[in-house]
Records
---
Amino acid sequence: MKKILLVEDNDLICGLVVEILEERGHRVLVAQNLTQAHTILADQIKREGVAPDCIISDRDLKISDEGITFLKFVNENVKPVPTKVLFSGRSDGMPTVAREVGAHFLPKPFRLQELVTVVEKGSPVPV
């Protein structure tokens, strides 16, 4: 079982991702904005001494690129750096941007099995 922080403001996508990951035995913490993501991450580290095993973030939350900003923050402040996944409805240049922040990129719409594979294999992307 992995502990996963999902940062997603779309209720439909959030519900589907949570359902599929919890069915596979994972625990999913949900943040719907950047403030919640920072709070949940800090609480997790304070309470358990480690970050979640995986952070999944939408690229654009309420403000464009907020997901990228959060993943950069994770890289600079969390050790060891967890597996990161970035997804976006825009694919122009996004694989490169994701790689720059050490994240796997999944374009929307993505197949849920693709997400499950990345989460369960847990392979980091070099920054």
Note: The domain at 3-121 is CATH 3.40.50.2300 (Rossmann fold).
---
Amino acid sequence: MEACYSANYWWCLFQQHGFHVDLILPHQVKPFVVGNKNDHNDAIAIAEASMRPIATFVAIKTLAQDIQSLEHIREGLMKNRTALANQMRGLLAEYGVIVEKKQLYCVQLFPSFWKMQKTRSQQCREPLLIISIKSYSASMKE
């Protein structure tokens, strides 16, 4: 089977049904694809590539790799939250409200911001700030 994004799932499923499965690297399969890309031609190319003596197979993902993937996702979420907090601080600075670089201060400052006198330019930008606040609040719950 070609090692693709869902190969680990299918590997486990076929193993449960008693099949032996090897995962072959996609770049080793590509030279054997003849004609247009479709399932039939891909299956023939995978079979041809896997019978070659120099075929290299990859191992199935381990639990440690799954945990590492989850850690990468979490790191990405944290970066997004930090970027959103910085964007909101920049927007608030345009209104003359200076906020410290701590996320707690961003959350505590929102109520006082709404009490400020609204000028015409603030009324135009307010929807952007509302969206930012809702996104930031949602990220804090994660």
Note: The chain has two domains: 7-58, 63-141.
---
Amino acid sequence: MAFFGGKGPDVVLECAGTGSALQPAIDLVRPFGRVALVGIDNDSLAISAWNIVLKGAGLLGVLDLDFGGGMELIRQKKVDCREFLTEIIALDRIQEAFETLLKPVDEEKIVIAHEHGAKQWGRDAQE
């Protein structure tokens, strides 16, 4: 909080899509700040409304994202997100990947990659 002058940031981007990440984002944002919901989850989110109401904070669903810009940062190795990935799978297993995402047992973050793409991520696609 000291980094933000003791008041919290004006905007917090919640990208995980889980209740366990959303509540800390609400708690962190400064009074009259905004929490942008970027992550998507299939489950309902249980949060306490106290800090939203007392801070006058706003929740905003975000759909228009610059995925191309984000991928470019990853390509340039300015962002390393491999540690967040649950799995990298081969393109020929795409149906299995979507079925996994529909019934997650954990917080699934899957990259679907052809052979060359998987090597760019620093490991082989699982076949």
Note: The helical segments are 19-28, 50-55, 67-75, 94-102, 115-120.
